[in-house]
Specification:
This protein is mainly alpha-helical. Helices cover 45% and strands 9% of the residues. The protein has helices at residues 2-16, 27-36, 40-49, 72-84, 101-118, 120-128, 146-151, and strands at 50-56, 59-64, 89-92. A 3-stranded mixed sheet has the order 1-2-3. The N and C termini lie far apart (61 Å). The relative contact order is 0.09.
């Protein structure tokens, strides 16, 4: 009856309600919050164009990189206010800021590529296969992203129990009903 509807409505409201007391100390905290709300366009714009000059509770000042949307500060301020339940002032400044998330990620990826290209086994493989190139470098044991896990089929584990075949599934036995002695 109506009880199930009330519970579903309450659950939907709680997932959309502002999260009071959300601690935002870094630009990464902002992108994590945006990703959690699936505001992926704004998350990507923050990663690519926001060079943080100053960040403190309720106030973000940033120097936008060339190509940033003109309304980025306004949309980001609205999103942060809606997501945290605290009014946010987001201002654009011409002061120098820190590297963007994208610039830091690009530098990390370049360092991994440079290290791979310096490895003798990689050099041998590139020499052995004409036209080969490195498209991506990931550290060994690097976990896949949660987004990738959503699309992967569950891994089937091997059943180690002896005699787990259904009698009729054993194609090598001519007489499936005889007992093995």
């Amino acid at each position: 009856g109506g009880g199930a509807t009330a519970v579903a409505t309450a659950e939907a409201a709680s997932t959309q309600a502002p999260r009071l007391g959300v601690g935002i100390e870094t630009v990464e905290d902002i992108t994590t919050l945006l990703a959690g709300q699936r505001n992926l366009k704004l998350q990507k714009e923050v990663e690519d164009f926001v060079s943080v000059v100053s960040l403190r509770p309720g106030v973000l000042e940033f120097n936008p990189l060339p190509g940033a949307p003109a309304d980025l500060a306004g949309r980001l301020g609205q999103a942060l206010t809606a997501l945290t339940g605290q009014r946010w002032a987001v201002a654009v400044t011409e002061s120098a800021g820190e590297e963007t998330i994208r610039a830091r990620n690009d530098a990390t990826n370049q360092a991994l590529l440079d290290a791979a290209l310096a490895h003798p086994m990689v050099l041998s493989a590139l020499d052995a296969f004409e036209g080969a190139e490195i498209l991506e470098v990931r550290p060994l044991g690097a976990a896949s992203s949660p987004a990738q896990d959503e699309f992967l089929a569950p891994m089937v584990e091997r059943d180690e129990i002896e005699g787990d075949l259904v009698v009729s599934d054993d194609e090598w036995d001519d007489d499936p009903w005889k007992e093995n002695i």
